[in-house]
Amino acid sequence: MDEDILYHLDLGTKTHNLPAMFGDVKFVCVGGSPNRMKAFAQFMHKELQLEGDGEDIEDICAGTDRYCMFKTGPVLSISHGMGIPSISIMLHELIKLLHHARCCDVTIIRIGTSGGIGIAPGSVVITDTAVDSFFKPRFEQIILDNVVTRSTELDKELATDLLNCSRETPGFPTLIGHTMCTYDFYEGQGRLDGALCSFSREKKLDYLKRAYKAGVRNIEMESTVFAAMCGLCGLRAAVVCVTLLDRLESDQINLSHDVLVEYQQRPQLLISNFIKKQLGLCGQMS
Ligand SMILES: O=P(O)(O)O[C@H]1O[C@H](CO)[C@@H](O)[C@H]1O
Ligand SMILES: O=c1cc[nH]c(=O)[nH]1
């Protein structure tokens, strides 16, 4: 293409010098909420001891209200909204952006929230494989009128490195497990508290227990397409989500604001330690 307009990011190859703006990016962290991703960028700014206090960090995508993007040294922090369609659009444009900027050796990590199954709320789950609602490691992309099935395996070595790093980040339990990705927060995750519900509490528990038996430890809404797209495009990718509740116990999220904020910081803390290690800022990886 003579010109590539990354419409939802409000960036383009003719309007912006993408190699100058993004050429040094080595880590991309993504998550649903714009505020969380801004807070993460400000946190990374401090952790990397960059100049200034980072409070006035600029949203690179300020020209659109679809997504937010912040850059702190080699770390890009981007929001993706909720659900597969939203993250998939962002990933198409982000991956093209990294290509146009001639970035190399990029690691991409989703830092999110999730519902746990059979584990303590506040636990952090590092995903080994993202699975669909049938507990299958696949993402079905509709292309024209075909269903194309894509693999959702994530980088096992990266997951193990993150688990090792978590051992040096005390204060919360961290584990590796499968993550189930759904198309909905309510009926799609077996909740009884949505506007619509057509199944019993027994059926819900039976489903969630079968998920647990199949290795699923948490449920969220983006991991399958994230794993599939990053895998196909050759990006080293990980999904690290804190659990806000145990779905075998309840459906409603009734955490106080302070607890919710602290829980959301857990994956950020782990990833910041990981990035600092990778950059050689605090010793060697174990
Ligand atoms: O916390 P984030 O990153 O938004 O992720 C989870 O939270 C949202 C639902 O509340 C879904 O997007 C789910 O995947
Ligand atoms: O239960 C939950 C909590 C957060 N995000 C989800 O997708 N599900």
UniProtKB/TrEMBL annotation:
Q: PROSITE patterns attached here?
A: PNP_UDP_1
- Annotated Nucleoside phosphorylase domain residues: 26-275
> Which key words tag this protein in UniProt?
Glycosyltransferase, Transferase
Q: What is its EC number?
A: 2.4.2.3
Which reaction is recorded as catalysed by this protein?
uridine + phosphate = alpha-D-ribose 1-phosphate + uracil
Asked whether the UniProt record includes Transferase among its keywords, one would answer yes
A family per Pfam: PNP_UDP_1
What the entry lists under Gene3D superfamilies is as follows:
Nucleoside phosphorylase domain
The family database entries (InterPro entries) matched by this protein are listed as: Nucleoside_phosphorylase_CS, Nucleoside_phosphorylase_d, Nucleoside_phosphorylase_sf, Uridine_phosphorylase_euk
Function field: Catalyzes the reversible phosphorylytic cleavage of uridine to uracil and ribose-1-phosphate which can then be utilized as carbon and energy sources or in the rescue of pyrimidine bases for nucleotide synthesis. Shows broad substrate specificity and can also accept deoxyuridine and other analogous compounds.
- NCBIfam families hit by this protein: euk_UDPppase
**Entry similarity comment:** Belongs to the PNP/UDP phosphorylase family.
List the protein's name.
Uridine phosphorylase
> To which species is this protein native?
Mesocricetus auratus
Gene that specifies this protein: Upp2
